[in-house]
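>> received
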Amino acid sequence: MRKRIAITMGDAAGIGAEITVKALSSSEVYEKAIPVVYGDRAPLEDALSFCKLDGLKLKAIESWDEAVGEYGVIEFFDAGLLAPGAWEYKKNQAVSGDASFQYIIAAIRDAMDKKCDAVVTGPISKEAIHMAGHNYSGHTEIFADYTNTHKYSMLLSGGNLRVIHVTTHVSMEQACKLITMERELDVIRLAKRGMALLGYENPRIAVAGFNAHCSENGLFGNQEALAIEPAVHAAQAEGICVDGPIPPDTVFCKALGGMYDIVVAQYHDQGHIPIKLQGFRLDPKTNMYTSMSGINCTIGLPIIRTSVDHGTAYGKAGEGRANEESMRDAIDAAITMANHF
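>> returned
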């Protein structure tokens, strides 16, 4: 049975509408899913125009009961928030920030009501949603708040590398304080749960150290001794296949070499950098990305949420040249996770 996939369009000033319509120009999506876009007609029409996708049609629907999932017809819920000319491409602005936020809330509501099987999110601007008065640091926190979820984490996947984060959108100073034994154990458990959704019954989990050389027995810090090691031992006692702490300068090489299925990263960039090195390729002659693969998932929610692993890319918005690879990956992951949910 095809899965009902809600796709939030993202910030209209960025590339969200473009990568959405490009992804839905593939017939393969419709073989496994019934996708419906949460957005506005005007930016979707713009995207079809500047991407030269004249063969695709837009169809506004009022409820999921109307969704058919016919290839060539992009079904969408029209929020009615952005009229033509109401926003400007390549620019942070409250109007598009608020609209992107409202698309997300509508999709969360429908997923919580079991009207759809998963939510795939397009890129938003943190600055734009803040300008609109919504004080969240990203999608992850919005989903956690609106689903009343307290134990959750960000899982990234790119190629054959997967990471899950103990801390994300905080300063390094604050990350030090947030690394506790309880949080480490929660994320190890979430790693197992997230991998199960991706089809791994007994994943091999590696936990990265926080400090250089895992602190060298306390020479460079104490997070390993006070938080990470006790959490790993507790998880092993629960029967979870987990090792650590492992020095962060080698743990990702080991995962790429096949020793581990997922790495628990201690902070934002520790996990994001290796993932983006895996999935992003930049042509130095054109300064354009020839590949932008990878996905972002929020694990621990009562619903499924996947996302592209990149931002709004204002610099190329409205030009028809954005790469939709990550959106396709996110849709595929949502389908896989819905099948294992």
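>> Residues 94-112 form the longest helix (19 residues).
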